[in-house]
Design a protein that fits this description.
With 825 residues, the chain is α+β, with helices and mostly antiparallel strands. The protein has four domains: 218 residues, no CATH class; 158 residues, no CATH class; 220 residues, no CATH class; 134 residues, no CATH class. The protein is built from 25 helices and 21 strands. The strands form two sheets. Strands 2-3-8-5-7-6 form a six-stranded mixed β-barrel. Strands 12-14-19-16-18-17 form a six-stranded mixed barrel. The protein starts with 8 loop residues before the first helix and ends with a helix. It is a multi-pass membrane protein.
């Protein structure tokens, strides 16, 4: 240690970068989680919330809520069309509120007036506030009028923010806030229409939230209420943050693997320089254990130094950039130093350094003194002894266990780590193939001295080829996988949209409107197809008499309310996979046709019973058939369909999809909403665009994580080039003495780097394509196609990165005078 840290720059850099990336991702995730916990009541709009589907609470149910809370606020949310007379119309997410709203926090408006004043009627017309984006689209200014359903409103202010707006980013339209009482004549909250009601509660101090939840659930048992409280005020956001954070941590582990390659290369290069020292120690009687522990202690101290540097960077950068990060986050964050993520990153760094440093340490300790003095390194052992292999295996298992524990998704972690191991194996194989490939290409370079010199170097310097291909290739492989997954998903959407997606979803069509709607569409030559079905929403509460979640776990079908329809006959293009459809005049006990794929995932069989709560009424039916339902084509798809008699008398509306020529879409939307103001038209293209934008945002975050991996790989490249600087100078001197020009020498160095960079890029394409196929096939369940444009860019990036690292040190080698260098050698 007293001799200095010369030769350990790459070691410290790789370890510090990898730990910093992991610490930064963990710190940001912890800050968001702390912000969500701190502002849980404000994000929720109260201490707790009870949500009902498509109805308001009855008098008895409201009395229960009033009894346990000190204050209750009732709101309703639904989608509708905001229209301007003779002008534009646009989809909006309507939030209907009462006088008590908001219980917690403030609604921020422009101009800054109280919400009570903004919603007050003026000139007999009720007031409303909306997001600026919606007002701009409709061409509205403060003081202008617009319509929701059959009710006119005056825009009194622009809506900047409101307490419980955490889900706005996923809504299909910007938010408009009005009074619930002002919607009485709008026709938008009739029986069977698609809306949800929320009851936000202020609870007495010290209230036990679990006890309050049990009390409300028992009192509203038949209403299938959903409970949320301030402990998790934005469960959708927190789940999203957890999953994205876990994914970024796994990408960070890829960076750690790249850093590990750099660690191994740095340790091996350092120990090669220490061969005379090790030989002397062994000659003087030092055992292999003593030699191993001497350098293990040194590597351990340096590991702690690298980890400390990484923790300072990873913990400090988010604090320094907190204002910038917070301004780009759609949720609150409480930035600070969080010991948990820092300890996690430190553990990863220590274990990774141990895994990758033990192998060269063990080989150095096992090499005989006589072999060391002769500098015949090839004469030493190629594999460590069993005790060292056991130590390496134990450290690797500890790293895998830590990753599984901290990521929160052990299946994804194991698959990711398996993918990293597979990519490293593929890259190592590619590096080994570099020598025979260079030998085979030698005949092509007989008249090209620079190319011949480059191929000769690739053929003989296998250690250098392995370091370059492994370090650069793994970073490129992560980028390749991200690019392939993103491109596959976007390509799938682009391929399916023109062929199968409808132009509109029309919802809230009343039963007495559906015939007129079908007639209007039939008379329009631009409409190619119309599909319509009755629709209501239900919650699966029991399966075969047992609680649904006890049987189906966390399956999406039982997590919330789902669409339910009825039909005398199977709809057109329906494929029955098992069982039979009921007769057209069937009037017996309720029967259900269930989506086949989801039934298989849950484990349902023909004859099983399901209890579905529809608008407070429990209906128990028997599964009579399974059918294919494709939810990816943006058409009408219901998990459950029942015989009509089972739902007789239940208030409901109709849903319809319209397939039309793009140029006729505006006219169709205008005609429908003018005739039936209560009907909401949802442009499918806009909905898919919002999902695509969300996926794009995730992809950007993931690409930044992958870029950190690539930066670490480039640091390894620089280290490899630095370690080979001495040999480059010697090589250049020999070539100059033999008559080679500077141009030929420089070209040979550049070609050598380009060959290894291209090899790393090609291997990365293969690894990324396999990863992309696996995710597309088993996670996204879409067809996979290699994105060749991304692949070509990766090869170019690999070549340029290798060239940059090589030429950074090649120019110095060219300036050396041959006589001076050769005399010193």
């Amino acid at each position: 240690m007293r001799g200095g840290l010369r030769g350990f720059g790459v070691f410290l850099t790789c370890l510090a970068l990898a730990v910093a990336a992991l610490a930064a991702v963990g710190t940001v995730r912890a800050a968001i989680q702390a912000g969500l916990a701190r502002d849980g009541a404000a994000l929720l709009g109260g201490d707790a919330e009870v949500q009902l589907t498509y109805r308001f609470a009855t008098g008895d149910e409201r009395a229960v809520l009033d009894r346990i809370a000190t204050a209750v606020s009732e709101t309703a949310e639904f989608r509708s069309m905001a229209t301007v007379e003779g002008g534009e119309r646009a989809l909006t997410q309507v939030k209907a509120v009462d006088d008590a709203y908001p219980l917690v926090g403030r609604v921020m408006l422009s101009p800054p007036i109280p919400l009570e004043q903004a919603l007050a009627p003026g000139g007999g017309i009720p007031g409303a506030v909306m997001k600026q984006a919606l007002a701009t689209r409709l061409g509205l200014s403060v003081g202008d009028r617009f319509r929701l359903g059959e009710q006119d409103f005056t825009l009194t202010a622009m809506l900047d923010s409101f307490p419980d707006d955490t889900g706005e980013g996923l809504a299909l339209g910007p938010v408009t806030i009005v009074r619930t009482a002002d919607l009485a004549q709008s026709g938008l909250l009739g029986p069977g229409t698609l809306f949800s009601s929320q009851y936000r509660l202020l609870l007495p101090p010290g209230t036990d939230l679990d006890s309050a939840q049990a009390q409300v659930t028992a009192a509203l048992e038949g209403a299938a209420p959903r409970w949320r409280d301030s402990r998790e005020g934005a469960p959708g956001l927190s789940t999203f943050v957890d999953r994205l954070g876990s994914f970024l941590i796994l990408i960070g582990l890829s960076g750690l693997a790249v850093g590990g390659v750099g660690v191994a290369a740095a340790v091996r290069a350092y120990l090669d320089e220490k061969l005379p020292v090790i030989a002397t120690l062994k000659t003087l009687g030092a055992s292999r254990g003593t030699v191993f522990l001497v350098y293990l202690l040194q590597i351990g101290v340096l590991t702690l130094a690298g980890v400390a540097i990484g923790l300072v960077l990873g913990g400090g950068l988010p604090l320094a950039l907190a204002p910038l990060i917070q301004s780009r986050l759609p949720m609150p964050a409480a930035f600070g130093l969080y010991p948990g993520p820092l300890a996690e990153a430190a553990l990863y760094g220590i274990l990774a350094a141990l895994v990758f440093a033990l192998w060269p340490l063990a080989l150095a300790a096992e090499t005989r003194a006589a072999v060391l003095f002769r500098s015949a390194v090839a004469g030493g052992r190629r594999w460590p002894r069993a005790p060292y292999l056991a130590m390496i295996g134990a450290a690797a298992l500890a790293l895998v266990a830590a990753a599984c524990l901290f990521s929160g998704n052990w299946r994804l972690t194991l698959w990711t780590l398996g993918g990293i191991a597979g990519a490293l194996g593929l890259l190592a194989l590619s590096a080994q193939l570099a020598a025979p490939l260079a030998r085979a290409l030698m005949p092509l370079a007989r008249t090209r001295p620079a190319l011949r010199l480059a191929l000769g170097a690739v053929r003989t310097r296998r250690a250098e080829a392995s370091a370059v291909v492994l370090s650069l290739g793994l970073g490129l492989a992560v980028l390749a996988a991200v690019g392939q997954i993103d491109g596959t998903l976007r390509g799938s959407i682009a391929r399916e949209m023109p062929e199968v997606a409808p132009s509109f979803f029309f919802v809230d069509l009343q039963p007495d409107q559906i015939d007129g709607f079908k007639a209007m569409m039939a008379d329009n030559p631009a409409v190619s197809r119309v599909e319509a079905a009755p629709m209501m929403r239900g919650v699966v509460t029991q399966i075969n008499g047992r609680p649904a979640q006890d049987v189906a776990g966390d399956h999406w079908v039982v997590r919330g309310d789902r669409g339910v329809t009825y039909s005398d006959n199977p709809p057109a293009r329906t494929t029955i996979t098992a069982g039979e459809w009921w007769p057209a005049d069937y009037d017996g006990p309720p029967l259900i046709s269930f989506a086949a794929e989801e039934a298989a995932e849950i484990g349902l069989s023909l004859g099983d019973t399901l209890t579905v709560n529809i608008m407070g009424r429990d209906i128990t039916g028997t599964i009579a058939s399974f059918r294919q339902v494709d939810f990816r084509n943006a058409g009408i798809g219901f998990v459950m369909s029942m015989n009509p008699a089972a739902l007789r008398g239940a208030p409901h509306t109709w849903i319809a999809t319209v397939y039309a020529e793009p140029e006729a879409e505006d006219a169709i939307l205008r005609a429908v909403t003018d005739r039936w103001p209560n009907v909401t038209g949802i442009p499918v293209g806009e909905a898919i665009e919002r999902v695509s934008d969300l996926l794009g945002g995730i992809a950007v975050a993931v690409r930044w994580g992958a870029a950190a991996t690539l930066v670490t790989g480039f640091a390894v490249l620089i280290g490899t080039a630095l370690a080979g600087a001495r040999s480059r100078r010697y090589e250049a001197a020999i070539l100059k003495a033999l008559g080679a020009s500077r141009a030929v020498i420089l070209a040979s160095f550049a070609l050598r780097a380009a060959i290894l960079g291209a090899l790393a890029g090609l291997a990365a394409i293969a690894a990324g394509a396999v990863a992309g196929w696996a995710v597309a096939r088993f996670v996204l369940e879409v067809d996979h196609a290699v994105i060749w444009s991304s692949a070509v860019l990766l090869v170019v990036a690999g070549v340029l990165a290798a060239l940059a690292a090589e030429l950074a040190f090649a120019l110095r080698a060219l300036r050396v005078k041959p006589a001076t260098l050769l005399r010193s050698e």
